[in-house]
Specification:
alpha+beta; 427 residues; 2 domains; 10 strands
């Protein structure tokens, strides 16, 4: 085994003379490094977007909801007290959902009216972090106050202090109209919520839903929302109504996220296959350049098995070394990705505005707009949400090492089959 390690490391040393590996071998190693680093950045950004999106889904529906029949749950305060004692449950509150027609100064628009406790925004950090107030305040101090989504307010032509007519329909299809005052406008960073969601206080929701003394449902927050299923049975032992997890309510969205993540894995796999072909060509060139040396070593007693092991170990070293360096580089880039993007923004703005001032001395021209990767007027994000997962690092390392090792099998077999007599006779 010592001779295998010695020859493997010897063949991978870069030398300028003809006995060392060529620059293409260094390029092959750098290809693994760059590919691994790029994969780490892509997966971390993808995880960040997925995690951010799932947090937005949880903000609207909580982690687990219990729905009551008819008007709702009548003795909900008792259930809130009992469920709150379960280990891992961090919060329980009543809520009400109601489809309604909202009429503003411009249009009439359908929306989901969600009744929540008046103090929820100040007490639930997750909710306030996902539902950002862009105008006014999240204030239910006055009766008949409403908080509108940003796009919904724009469609209605509503602004802070304006009146919105809310029309709800009873079970016998009769309509009831209520006038609400707009106290705040929010942005959830999710177009569907911003265009179709409004919040009112829970007492007002009971009033317009003709359900005084009832809760349409209970919203439950837990310590581990990504394993929310473990809380269902303990809760149902206390509350006899059906419990829905946020995963169940958003099954289609989560399925789309899983498919997207799988697609990213497949694309990265093809990316590394290209890298493997680069390593394959490098090792074939190495075998051809080293065939005289291989012939001499085999004539001195180096077995075909050990010859095969030498080149297989070379492939392993390229994958392991390049993968490790790439992971380190990828983690470094990922941790400072948003700072790098901000630096690019400042650099581009400096160049643009410098050129503008120089040209403006000669003739008037329009001033350039500020360069931004994420314009707040267009996108719902201002920076990349980053989340690094250990499983992704393991996946990328295994991919780099496995494909790099497999790529050297054909040239390793060729080297193992070289006959010393033929090599020395021909040369």
């Amino acid at each position: 085994m010592n001779i295998v390690l010695y020859l493997s490391s010897k063949y991978l040393k870069f030398k300028a003379n003809e006995r060392g590996i060529s620059a293409i071998s260094v390029i092959a190693l750098l290809t693994v490094v760059i590919s691994t680093a790029a994969a780490i950045v892509i997966l971390s950004a993808s995880n960040g977007f997925h995690y951010s999106f799932m947090k937005k889904l949880m903000a609207k529906d909580a982690h687990l909801t219990i729905l009551g029949p008819g008007k709702g749950i009548d003795n909900y305060q008792q259930y809130i007290t009992e469920i709150g004692k379960i280990k891992g449950v961090t919060g329980v509150y009543p809520y009400a959902d109601r489809q309604a027609l909202l009429k503003g100064t411009l249009n009439t628009w359908g929306a989901l009216i969600k009744g929540i406790p008046s103090n929820l925004y100040s007490q639930d950090a997750d909710f306030s972090n996902q539902v950002k107030i862009v105008d006014g305040a999240f204030d239910f101090h006055d009766p008949m106050s409403i908080i509108l989504g940003e796009t919904l307010a724009e469609n209605l032509g509503a602004s802070i202090g304006s009146s919105v007519q809310v029309t709800v329909f009873s079970d016998d299809f009769g309509s009831l109209q209520y006038h609400f005052t707009v106290k705040g406008i929010f942005s959830a960073g999710y177009a569907e919520y911003d265009a179709n969601l409004a919040f009112i206080s829970f007492p007002d929701a009971q009033l317009i839903g003709d359900s005084i003394g009832y809760a349409y449902g209970l919203a439950i927050k837990v310590a581990d929302p990504f394993n929310v299923e473990q809380y269902v049975k303990p809760i149902q032992k206390i509350c006899p109504y059906h419990a829905w997890t946020w995963k169940t309510l958003n099954r289609n969205n989560l399925f789309a996220i899983e498919n997207e993540k799988m697609l990213v894995y497949i694309i990265l796999s093809f990316f590394f296959i290209v890298v493997a072909f680069n390593i394959l060509s490098t090792m074939i060139a190495m075998v051809l350049s080293k065939k005289e040396e291989i012939g001499i070593l085999k004539a001195m007693g180096l077995s075909p098995k050990k010859t095969l092991q030498v080149f297989l170990f070379d492939g392993f070293l390229i994958g392991a070394g390049g993968g490790t360096a790439g992971v380190v580089a990828g983690l470094f880039i990922t941790s400072g990705l948003n700072d790098i993007l901000h630096f690019i923004e400042h650099l581009v703005d400096f160049v643009n505005f410098s050129a503008y001032h120089l040209v403006h001395l000669i003739r008037p021209i329009p001033a350039p707009t500020k360069f931004e990767f994420f314009r707040q007027s267009v996108y719902y994000i201002t920076q990349f949400p980053i989340q690094i997962q250990f499983g992704d690092i393991v996946f990328v390392m295994l991919l780099a090492v496995t494909l790099s090792t497999l790529a050297v099998i054909p040239p390793a077999l060729k080297a193992a089959r070289l006959r010393p007599v033929e090599v020395l006779r021909n040369d």
